[in-house]
């Protein structure tokens, strides 16, 4: 199985989750994990599974204004977070809007604050909608990985992401997804 994991990350949490998912997917094949800023050259039709994830900002996918807000937060003198290298470039929303129609299997994921999804929102809902509009079949429910109030990944979330990747890989290769 060939899998691609495309992610957007502001403070590193979604990158860590994407890398963990990729480790899990490697149990059944070759995996490429790339930040969305470098995903433009990828031919998505060459993959058996495309996984796309990003941080939840203001109840959904990031946009230019929320990425700018993350940069402002990271640059404050008392900030406890560091901005990822590509955080201020175009995000998943723009990348997904520019995709040509295609076919394939896909799954969405996100990182979000620990709380009820009704209150926090979920970027994965919008990601999934855009993937479907471009012709992808969503082969699993989207998944959220949680961050705390200091914007740090909750303990155990990387392990859970790796296990999720392993489970998805087995489902796709066995034809159950």
UniProtKB/TrEMBL annotation:
SUPFAM superfamilies: Flavoproteins (SSF52218)
Chain intervals with Polar residues compositional bias: 168-177
Transmembrane domains' residue ranges: none
Xref: InterPro entries: Flavodoxin/NO_synth, Flavodoxin_CS, Flavodoxin_dom, Flavoprotein-like_sf
Gene3D superfamilies (alphabetical): 3.40.50.360
Biased composition (Basic and acidic residues): 150-163
Region (Disordered): 150-177
Residue stretches making up the Flavodoxin-like domain: 3-169
Record protein name field: Flavodoxin domain-containing protein
Organism encoding this protein: Rhodococcus jostii
């Amino acid at each position: 199985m060939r899998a691609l994991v495309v992610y957007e990350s502001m403070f590193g949490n979604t990158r860590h989750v994407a890398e963990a998912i990729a480790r899990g997917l490697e149990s059944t094949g070759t995996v490429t994990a790339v930040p969305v800023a470098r995903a433009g050259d990828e031919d998505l039709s060459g993959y058996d599974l495309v996984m796309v994830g990003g941080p939840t900002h203001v109840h959904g996918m990031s946009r230019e204004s929320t990425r700018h807000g993350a940069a402002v937060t990271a640059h404050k003198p008392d900030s406890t977070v560091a901005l990822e290298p590509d955080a201020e470039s175009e995000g998943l929303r723009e990348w997904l809007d520019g995709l040509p129609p295609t076919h394939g299997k896909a799954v969405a994921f996100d990182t979000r604050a620990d709380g009820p999804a009704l209150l926090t929102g979920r970027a994965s809902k919008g990601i999934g909608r855009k993937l479907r509009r471009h012709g992808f079949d969503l082969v699993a429910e989207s998944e959220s990985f949680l961050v705390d109030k200091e914007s740090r990944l909750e303990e155990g979330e990387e392990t859970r992401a790796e296990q999720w990747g392993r489970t998805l890989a087995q489902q796709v290769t066995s034809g159950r997804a």
